[in-house]
Amino acid sequence: MTETDRTDRVVTPYEGAAARAWDDAAPIAAPLCVHETRVRPEWLDYNGHMSESCYLLVFGDDSDAFFRYIGIDEAYRAAGHSLYTVETHIFNRREAAADDPLRLTLHLLDHDPKRLHVFHAMHNAETGALLATAEQMLLHVATGSGRTAPMPEPLQRRLAAIRAAHAALSVPDEVGHVIGIPRRAS
């Protein structure tokens, strides 16, 4: 049994799917919409809403779909590289219930040879209501050493094209938000 055949771990909906072939001439949506799903009954908590951990699960699936979009798949990982999430900030805006259709968008805020700064937005696909957002910092890693490593030039070119297409998007209000309890001066 290979690691990909194991069933005792989290498996994303895109696992085993090959990366999408990149077309330099194809238009790039701003923001990208590469993942849609429905709220599964096992994602519900004791309040009957999607559990907070499942929001992160769905945002992770959106990242995985984005990886396939830019050229990262199992073959890429087998060659010794991957993207790791190092920080995530989630804003929960509205509740999601069983079988609600979810549409996710991804805005590439910035990148350099070793890092991606992305912003996900989760909407109800029928009503358009914003349900949650997630801001993430991802690192490109050489998996053998566990250390950051520059992405190959083709990935960097693809990210530059996406970033150029997303440059006209405004930076969402949630980006860079710091958690804290505001105190008034006495």
Describe this structure in words.
The structure is a single chain. With 186 residues, the chain is an alpha+beta fold. It has a single domain (29-166), classed as Thiol Ester Dehydrase, Chain A, CATH 3.10.129.10. It has 3 helices and 6 strands, in the order βααβββββα. Strands 1, 2, 3, 4, 5 and 6 form a 6-stranded antiparallel beta sheet that branches. A hairpin with a 3-residue loop joins strand 3 (101-111) and strand 4 (115-124). The N and C termini lie far apart (64 Å). The model has no long low-confidence stretch (mean pLDDT 94).
Helices and strands in order, then pairings?
Elements: E1 32-38, H1 52-70, H2 74-78, E2 81-92, E3 101-111, E4 115-124, E5 130-142, E6 147-148, H3 153-166
Antiparallel strand pairs: 1-3, 2-5, 3-4, 4-5, 5-6
Order of helices and strands: EHHEEEEEH
The class by helix and strand makeup works out as alpha+beta
Total strand segments? 6
Number of helical regions:
3
Which descriptor suits the 3D outline? globular
Helix residue percentage:
10-25%
Separation of termini?
Answer: 64 Å
Overview in brief:
With 186 residues, the chain is an alpha+beta fold. The protein is 20% helix and 30% strand. The protein contains three helices and six strands, in the order E-H-H-E-E-E-E-E-H.
